[in-house]
Amino acid sequence: MNIVILSGRVATDIDSRVTKDGRLVSHFNLASPKGFKKNKEGKIPAEFHRINAWGKIAEHCRDYLLKGRQVNVRGHLSTNTYTTKDGKRLNFSEVTADIVEFVDYRKEVSPAQQLTPVAESAAIPVPETTASIGVPALQDMSISAEAYGVEIPF
Questions:
Q1: FRET label pair with 53: which of 22, 40, 78, 149, CA 20 to 30 Å apart?
Q2: Cα(140)–Cα(100) distance, rounded to whole angstroms?
Q3: What CA–CA distance (Å, rounded) separates 33 from 47?
Q4: Of 71, 65, 29, 61, which is closest to residue 46 (Cα–Cα)?
Q5: How many Å apart are CA 65 and CA 101, to the nearest integer?
Q6: What are the backbone dihedrals phi and psi of residue 54, each rounded to the nearest 5 degrees, phi first?
């Protein structure tokens, strides 16, 4: 069974495109902490995952998802190969999202962006933090991402 479940913060801007056959695809990188224990530098190590969303999910990501937002992603792992300009074949893995759940609530975004796609129809706002269930807020964690060339929004 090929199922991937990830939770983290969007580490890059959403890149949405239309394929040659007219399908919408959105790409973004997700930074997920490797736990809550800080390393010697006082930072929590993170993994970076390439996420692809297609169709209606891609549309919601394009319209509502922002860099720094906390999301849960459920999907499946895909491994692809490409050839560089100098002829080297490289493999890379990415997650194709079946579900993207918007977890946090941001006051600086418009009211339409404060709701998850599911909650949008029910008009139920998403809670600002998970402190009520005893989980530390991820925005208080600092993660070094210099090797990945991305700025971590938390």
A1: 149
A2: 23
A3: 6
A4: 29
A5: 10
A6: -120, 155
Mean pLDDT, rounded, of the chain: 77
* Cα–Cα distance for residue pair 113/50, rounded to 1 Å: 22
Residues 69, 9: contact at Cβ < 8 Å? Answer: yes
pTM for the model stands at 0.64
Is residue 35 a contact partner of residue 44, using CB atoms and an 8 Å limit? yes
User: Cα dihedral angle (29, 119, 109, 49), rounded to 10 degrees?
Assistant: -10
Terminal-residue alpha carbon distance, the chain: 32
pLDDT tens digits, one per residue of 98-137:
999 999 866 555 544 444 444 333 333 444 444 333 334 4
Which two structure tokens, joined as six digits, stand for 124? 């139920």
**Chain segment 31-58, per-residue pLDDT in tens:** 998 877 888 888 888 899 999 999 999 9
